[in-house]
Prior knowledge:
heterodimer, A: mainly alpha, B: Helix Hairpins, 3 helices
Amino acid sequence: MTxxxxxxxxxxxxxxxxxxxxxxxxxxxxxxxxxxxxxxxALLTYQTPTILAGERFLQSWQWLPDxxxxxxxxxxxxxxxxxLLILGIGLLVILYARYYLSAQEPIGRFYALLMLxxxxxxxxxxxxxxxLLLMFWELTSLSSFLLIGFWTHSxxxxxxxxxxxxxxxxxxxxxxxxxxxxGNIAGSFELSAxxxxxxxxxxxxxxxxxxxxxxxxxxxxxxxxxFHFWLPAAMAAPTPVSAYLHxxxxxxxxxxxxxxxYPLLGGNPMFEYVTTTVGLTTMVFGAYVAMFRHDLKGxxxxxxxxxxxxxxxxxxxxxxxxxxxxxxxxxxHATFKASLFMAAGIIDHECGTRDxxxxxxLWRQMPQTALLAIVAASxxxxxxxxxxxxxxxxxxxxxxxxxxxxxxxxxxxVAVMLGSMFSVAYSVRFIHDVFFDEPHNLPHQPxxxxxxxxxxxxxxxxxxxxxxxxxxxTVAPLVDVAARAVVxxxxxxxxxxxxxxxxxxxxxxxxxxxxxxxxxxxxxHRYDLHLHVPAHYTGRLLFQHxxxxxxxLAARLTNQLHNGSLQRSLALVIATFLGLGAWPFVEHGLDxxxxxxxxxxxxxxxxxxxxxxxxxxxxxxxxxxxxAIVLAGVVGLAASIAFxxxxxxxxxxxxxxxxxVSTLLLLIALALLPHSTPxxxxxxxxxxxxxxxxxxxxxxxxxxxxxxxxxxxSIAWFFLENSLPRGGGHNVVNVLLVDFRGFxxxxxxxxxxxxxxxxxxxxxxxxxxxxxxxxxxxxxRMIFAVAARILLPFALLVALHMFLRGHDLPGGGFVAxxxxxxxxxxxxMGEGLRRMLAHIRIDFWLWIGGGVVIAGVTGLASxxxxxxxxxxxxxxxxxxxxxxxxxxxxxGFDLGVFMTVLGTTLLILTSIGQVHRKTxxxxxxxxxxx
Amino acid sequence: xxxxxxxxxxxxxxxxxxxxxxGRTFSMVLGLSMLSTAGNLFIFSMGxxxxxxxxIVAAGAExxxxxxxxxxxxxxxxIGFGMTGFIMALAVRMHHQTGSDHVDGLDPVLERRPEHGx
Lengths: 930, 118
């Protein structure tokens, strides 16, 4: 369980604790975030000796094995190094942020987001499953988005957050596609399975596509040219975030990914060529631009881009030592860049600006910070005795030793020299402009920074020196296992040391240092750097154009598809469905069967004809709504007869009852609406709708015909055989409803109840007395009212009969509920709604709810008895006088159905029935006149 | 009979779709209700047409109609009513609220909330 605990501790314990403790002040919140992080770090440190000894371990739990998604984790050298960086620097950032944020800012939210990021980043580096890795990958993009936009009031922050999310998230999608392709080839998403199947995957024709997509994901995440522009925009984030996410950890996820997949990708010519080219371009470009940034964080951002390019270049090279250098530089860059960001944050915090044109001479006010920054900047520039020097020298050595890279072999050494000189130049600028030059109208006199705000940067500076002076005693073993995790055991004998004797790389270092200083001097005194106006951010502008353009396009598309007219949308939906439905038949042809089992009979023709005539009549007369209702009723009746004729007595009964209730519903509603439909459709629209309707009708007719004339294969025989022995009933349809498919029915009665309640809610505020309602049964309805009253007990008895026999003969809860509802509706028609409600005093809500509860409890009873939900039991006790009574526990369920159906039907009808008619002036006049 | 059934389902569907595309809520609800009848008949007919073979287990019965589509359709009929009731209530509410029974809430020709008599 170790790895999941290490990953989840910051997220679960950290966020929960910060949430609880944030009210008790900043320090409490910081402790709450720091302790779980420290615990994770301790757990990871505990594993360190094992990993350093060359072991690696995997932990795995199944999640969705069918989809290849498992909770599998791996801890090896690479993961260990990253894990230590994430947790170690994370701990320092927590401390730093506690002093960085000002008192009114929501530090709880800040720490919670930081913890989310930390967990996600740990997830990336410890994932063994590619899909799991991807989920964590997207989580880092998401938490980065939230953290960049932490100052929600700043438009720059919001824009930067959006941009970072669009670029890294988009890259994440590409990565997903690439991983899916590889997973598909390998038949697994476990990384070890990929490495085992290395040759198969690499020889697959789709491999190059997958590789391109994966590289896209890595390049966007690690801000490689031309996707680099999001990183400077992300500098709108609070500085602790820039130090942590956007220099030390998250932007390394791209290089981490390539390092992780190196056993699969390494040595592939395309991988090598693309990665080295992109890396080198980014390195030189980033370093060049960094010299001209006036903003401290802008300079550091471009410097980060440049260093990421350097690492990318090293990873791309197909030599074991270059991978070692890459891994080493990842760690070195994380330490010196994070401490530089912290120094920049301190300067900003104490001087109120980060603009190097205004800053200057801070050496006197904050000597300690100056010292810290000088140490870190020296490491960045590659000065001997600092850690950056060591990895940079390896970098020079590798750049001089290229093979099989065509043009790049000649360009690389020159580019590397240039990039390094630029790197020295901006490092010198950082120190000189801030600490030594003269200040130019600072916003206020610099304060002394709080004591503990400097501690994190101090720790990192000490690491820079310790590694730089004594590499063999500090990080060498860790870098060694990390590199072995990347390249396997192909690592030749080597030694990380300060002094290798006089060599070409050493000379290059010297040239870079001198050249960089000269470049800075020239820029400052010949070019007048401070008057330089930065060019427009080309990448950012392009992005913004694409972004705005896509929004305009989306709006236009939406407007064209959906301009607010329901008729138009519906026509589009129907047309789309017709197209989709017809597609397979166009492709594969339509195959009509040859079986016709039932012969044509005269009654069949009459009923069929009636249905067609009713439907066509309803369309023809739809402007006169009452007529249309009656004609539509004919269709329903014909359907009911069809059900009865073709051996579906339950359906026939249900359809008949529903037809009556529906017709009543439509009539009741019609009283509230205009009684006629205006003739307003244009000729064109009628033509369009006729065409759509004809196509839909023809499609359904042909489909029915095609199915009806084929032999039947059905699962019905199972139910027919088992209905009696296992469901205890002869009526298979009813047994299906209350037993075999009882869960389905249970859901359906809930839906029914919801529909009825919604109907009631919709009528909220419209309830009142109908004007037409008279105090006593009207004379013209007297006979009907009396008849209805007499019929009531008989009708209810029929309902009871239908209910009881339902399990064996046509009937059951649905039918019985409808019949009982009809009996009560007859009272409504006879006496008026108010009197009917006064007489029967049924709480429909109670019936609906009670029905659902009874049905549910019946189902649960079987669970209590140790059977699955809704298993029914059967007893056939013999009662004197009545004979054998089939008692089935499903009857309780059917009772629930009965109650819900009864309550629903009545609630729907009465809620619309209670609405008072809205009368407009013209209508009143018309009533008066008639 | 299969032919009549198929053609019947087709014609009812066509009429229902036509009504569904009308501009007034009432026609639309009517169309929707008819469409669910057509849909029910369609699903029902997937179990083929077998006269005189009710799916009620009895000694000596030779053949049975397919009970599965029947069970599906039975609940669908009732749910169809629930849906019709809900949409109807929506239409009534909208008419109350906007004074128009046009599906878009506004009279498309007059571009204002119309008042028209019964």
